[in-house]
User: Fold this.
Amino acid sequence: MATQHSRSAARIMMAPAVILLLGWMLVPLMMTLYFSFKKYLPLRGGDLGWVGFENYARFVSSSSFWPAVSATLMIVVGVLLITSILGVLLAILLDQPMWGQGIVRILVIAPFFVMPTVSALVWKNMFMDPVNGLLAHLWKFFGADPVAWLTEVPMGSIIMIVSWQWLPFATLILLTAIQSLDSEQLEASEMDGAPVLARFWYIVLPHLSRALTVVILIQTIFLLSIFAEIFVTTQGAFGTKTLSYLIFQRVLESQNVGLGSAGGVYAIILANIVALFLMRIVGKNLDT
Amino acid sequence: MARAVTTKRKSINTALAWAVGLLIFFPILWTVLTSFKTEAQAIADPPIFLGFDWTFENYSTVMERSNYMRFLWNSVIIAGGSTILGVIIAVPAAWSMAFVPSKRTKDILMWMLSTKMLPAVGVLYPIYLLFIRLGWLDSRVGLVIVLMLINLPIIVWMLYTYFKEIPGEILEAARMDGASLKEEILYVLTPMAVPGIASTLLLNVILAWNEAFWTLNLTAAKAAPLTAFIASYSSPEGLFYAKLSAASTMAIAPILILGWFSQKQLVRGLTFGAVK
Amino acid sequence: MGRIQLKQITKSFGNVEVIPPLDLTIEEGEFTVFVGPSGCGKSTLLRLIAGLEDTTSGVIEIDGADATSLAPAKRGLAMVFQSYALYPHMTVRKNIAFPMKMAGMDQAEQDKRIASAAAALNLTDYLDRRPGQLSGGQRQRVAIGRAIVREPSAFLFDEPLSNLDAALRVGMRMEISELHKKLETTMIYVTHDQVEAMTMADKIVVLQAGRIEQVGSPMELYRTPRNRFVAGFIGSPKMNFIEGEEAAKQNAHCIGIRPEHIDVASEGASWSGVVGVSEHLGSDTFFHVHDTGLADTITVRADGEVGITSGDRIYLEPRADMIHRFDDAGLSL
Assistant:
């Protein structure tokens, strides 16, 4: 509700943001699409003409493609499982009455603020190093042989590092959601004779479902394009080459822009499918 | 009504929560502790937890060797600059969407959100090419603009949700009182939204500070921020634990402190208002 | 100054017409109340006059000049909002000064006007407080103060008392009425509460679904409602409406009689029934009478001391000259 005057003012004021984002989206997207149909090797002859869908076909049929897809999925699914399950448990724990709740909260949230390059390096060297890493010391203390984490269980290690970074995010959001649960609802269900587990299953979990969905979708978007953690730890070796890392290598390391761009288009499509679900949820929220 | 809980139960909760909290926090704590050890103590077997000679030597070494201050300064400029620029562009847009909503407002908000989901790697080469053309490669200007653009949707969204909570009547009152649009935003809306704008600034500084795709790929030496500074410790310097720890501590400390202040707003910002 | 004329005003939101063509003249110095059930368009009408909404068609004239497309601030009107719309980050003084500051008035004049407004509204001691530190009534006064200092040609009030508790509401009602007597400025006041309308207005405009049902002084509306809607809306408790045989006797589709125009009589009176709920207010008693054969319930006002209680049979005598007659379209006959 407003006047003609304020509506036209609104359009003008919205323009810079809209135009900038439109440019930011369209220009690179168009260029990526353009390159994806070309044989384009900047260091080996440059633009070698149109090749139709060849890049798309080659990208999918390359021997690294399916391993990259499965690596991506393993990381995404693994991290999601760990962070959602532990996140719910942690949120419930932190919601209990205790002393020093504020401090525990701060401790739990801290990893989220750590730069991805820092956390990857610290984990890689100071914890997972088979000789001097803290985990190696711990293993030796219990009489086990130290594990060379990033070469023997590279996927598990990366999932572990990334989960450590994202668990605080999941916990924080789920905790916020849990705190908005009306305690009278729980008391009512207790009066109705529901035991603890039933209360969790029928009252707490449904209440958390929306927050949980949001956690999963937002994390998925970030996890699909995970980069620094792999760049710093394995550089894509030992089967940890994700789709985005593969594209990165095609474009920057082997300088095959056409092929990389075709991969980029796949990645964009994949991200948009996930995004669609997220936007539905956020969009619903806009109406309320 | 919250019920009284027995002291016993509260004690168990406390012990459990603190144990979990400390476990999660431990890698950070260990990094900070190690940064004060000598290199020998840092790799001592068995590891030394607290009983070592505290030294600041690593910090001075790191600062001398890698010109830490320049990286820090780049991080400050890039994170701060992109955030401030973003807020300046986003405030008018958020005002429009919150107070003069039209049928398309929702679609525009959604579309803005969708640009955030464009995988960076998909457009890496075009951006790289454009940067070369514009002479922005390894420049702070270029990174300020890119990080502003990737965070702009979040900034607009956060401001939008904060502005929505301000009653429109107050702005109408200002209009009746003779305030022009500029005066309305400057004297009435902005002061009222100060807490919201502050937390938006804070969250976006954090996000920009930690951004590790564009900052790694579009910089070399001149404009490289702390993310690149740390990545340079990948090897073989990474084997010098004490120095790595000192460098890491210096890279994360400022943002860790900011982050602790903004944890409440973080939820709203990162879920686009879907969880409050 | 302060004559407002609406000529063939309409307002649509999308395809929904909330105000069909409407004409209305508000005379200078008049206290006009727009009253009607919620959603009747009364607030929209006020916002059209204020300039906060565009008219879809028609002309708004203020003091003879076309103001239809003038910006709100240029119309010389001041508005008091339902939520008071005080600027929470400014002190009371700055709130009151804001419109003058926007107009670029010099500081000495500002101070003078703030002082006199504060004195008139009992706000002198609160000038350096923020709105958050004031009670509801005080906030209301600040909002009025902010309107007064502009010396507008008319004041617009949008349900200003609906956020106050009952006792304060009565007090503020008096204050606004007194303010009107003192300033003699045109005031337009929107409310859904017919008691406010009756007690404050020089002229009441009864609205329903964006249409004006009737315009007149409070007693005109009370005595000679133009139709059933106005008859039912004005007066508390509501007028009793009786259809059917009893109405036919009076050559009408429906007759209406106010509770205060029915006397409690003895056996042999025109009507009788059984008392359901009786509300004792002390000064008056309201009986809700059932089983009269006229309507579900007939409400009757009696003295406070009548010795009749629930379940008793009661005999009623309507005052013949106070019966309103309506045709089948609801119009008064």
About this structure: The longest helix of chain A spans residues 4-36. The CA atoms of residues 181 and 242 of chain A lie 38 Å apart.
